[in-house]
Specification:
The chain has 93 residues and is α+β, with helices and mostly antiparallel strands. 29% of the residues lie in helices and 32% in strands. It has a 4-stranded antiparallel beta sheet. The protein is globular.
Length: 93
């Protein structure tokens, strides 16, 4: 499973509509309204690398109200269990 985090800038008056439209795209697992440099953050989870382009470039970026996107592709996931094990080994010292 490939995971991408997409930071989305929108026109200010379309944030709820953009969030709803992005949520409806197949491959988008979650959409969050956030503070900071982006208006929304979308979590994309797909099985094949080529699907990232389908979801992000061909659909998400064309949603009315999307001004700009920045995509971060995840290399590795760390769960709470993994972090607890790392600290137990002394890696946090």
């Amino acid at each position: 499973m490939l995971t991408a985090i997409v930071l989305i800038d929108t026109t200010p008056d379309r944030i709820p509509e953009v969030a709803a439209a992005v949520t409806a795209i197949d491959g988008v697992s979650e959409v969050y309204s956030v503070t900071g440099k982006a208006d929304l953050v979308a979590m994309i989870r797909v099985r094949e690398h080529s699907r990232l382009a389908d979801v992000i470039a061909d659909q998400l970026s064309k949603v009315d109200g999307v001004v700009r996107t920045e995509t971060l592709v995840a290399f590795r996931a760390y769960s709470d269990v993994d972090l607890e094990q790392a600290f137990a080994l002394g890696l946090g010292d």
